Amino acid sequence: MSDPKTYLAAFLCGGVLCLIGQILIDKTKLTPARILVLYVVAGVVLGAVGLYRPLVDLCGAGATVPLTGFGYNLARGVQAGVAESGFLGALMGGITSTAGGITAAVFFGSLVAFLFQSKPKP
Questions:
Q1: CA neighbor of 94 nearest in space, from 109, 110, 79, 115
Q2: What is the pTM (predicted TM-score) of this model?
Q3: What pLDDT sits at residue 1?
Q4: Quick one: angle between helices 32-48 and 4-27, nearest 10?
Q5: Is 119 left (phi over 0), alpha (psi -120 to 50) or beta?
Q6: Average pLDDT over residues 49-66
Q7: 7 CB contacts (<8 Å, ≥6 apart)?
Q8: In the chain, which ranges are continuous DSSP H helix?
């Protein structure tokens, strides 16, 4: 897995996803929050229909770390939850599969807020 081609694929995949986001910010009237939602929903849809898995296999963290990867993990968790627990699994599976990422985001966000003081905009 530590093949230089894997690193290059991860870098290019993550870079392309960021490039698309930057183009959407610069060339459309979409707000960053709407682009965030668009990326997560795109990851859910692509994951649900099985198109995101080959990208994850090829690019590794370049596909799983961005917001589309979060959506992909949500879809994968829901599919596993439904297979295991039926309808109730549809409600619990997504949260279970993304709990680690959510916990890390809350923890590190709180840590940064505690250590640094925000400055008002001029």
A1: 79
A2: 0.78
A3: 54
A4: 130
A5: beta
A6: 88
A7: none
A8: 4-27, 32-48, 52-59, 61-64, 67-85, 87-115
